[in-house]
Give the backbone structure.
Amino acid sequence: MRILHLTTFLQGGAGMVITSLAEAQVREGHALAVLTSRSGAPGYGNYPAYLDRLAVAGIRVAAVDSLFDRRLEAQAPVAHYLDDALGGAGAFDILHAHAAVPGAVARAAVRRSGRRVPVLQTMHGWGIAKTPAQSAADVRAMNHVDRLVVPARTSAALLQSLGVRTAHMAVVPYGVAPAPAPTVTDIHVQHMRAWRRQGDLVVCCIGTLGERKNQALLVEALARVAPGVSIQAVFVGDGPVDSLRRRAEALGVADRVHLIGYQPDARLYLRESHLLALPSRGEGQPLAVLEAFCDGVPVLASRIPELAELVEDGRTGWLFDPEDAGALAAVLSRAAVAPGPMRALAAHARATYHDRFTVERMVAGYLHEYERAS
């Protein structure tokens, strides 16, 4: 099958999913090209690591402006490149768009080609910075693609509530690959291993620092754990650190709060942890949870719909109320003094990964949806 992936940028979790999907499709014998935007914007851009992986896989990647800008004149160079350099939409069996603007570019390319080429769009997440007009335009666009794919049932319910028709919508969960053994370790990994040796519970919290990820709740919970329980919390992610650091100092837990910033391979620290903690107020389908399942790391997550869909309370992890620091502290204390249940959780987490979240299952799911779109 000849597949063209179109994306705003190759970044974050969505970029990792697109990269992994493309790599696996090439291994299965499909012919691929990837179109992404060349110029970044504040908070947006292509991750070099993803571009490097696609290049190693022999996948043709073109960065052309713009698949991010909503203005038609800004999208014109992409249209010219798609028609002139790639042979137009008719040179492919499926156009796989990974956001609303790429979806619009794909549908316009099909109209220019004069032949029937299906367009499938994956909606990786619903941006919170959209204007009402942009939201309405995106809903209209999603209602006009041949197939619409989301990674989770909660995502489907959200889009349905916004007016997206469900007849052409399907759920294909993300998939992650087993991580290779690390070739290097840094000072943070060395500290984490030392804490484990001395009997501390090591908890990893991954995500951009801020209100949505709610890391402050974990800091408050550290101050409420049972006496004699020693917990080290490692926070991986960029964002404003001053308020979190001040909160830790005020609560007397600064020596147990370790803010290590953005790391290109956050999974390296996840694998050194006893638990992944996600006190989030809002999520999509976080890859960190799937990676934790793959690596046999139990997940401690807030009881919001997106995380409750992934984490089975008492089987693959524990759930707690997202605004209750005391409830989080109680679960942390229980985990610290009862390692036996965590071993059972880890085994069930690995089984869940193999049943639902492998790259192979994701690839098969998308191939099925490609066929349904045709």
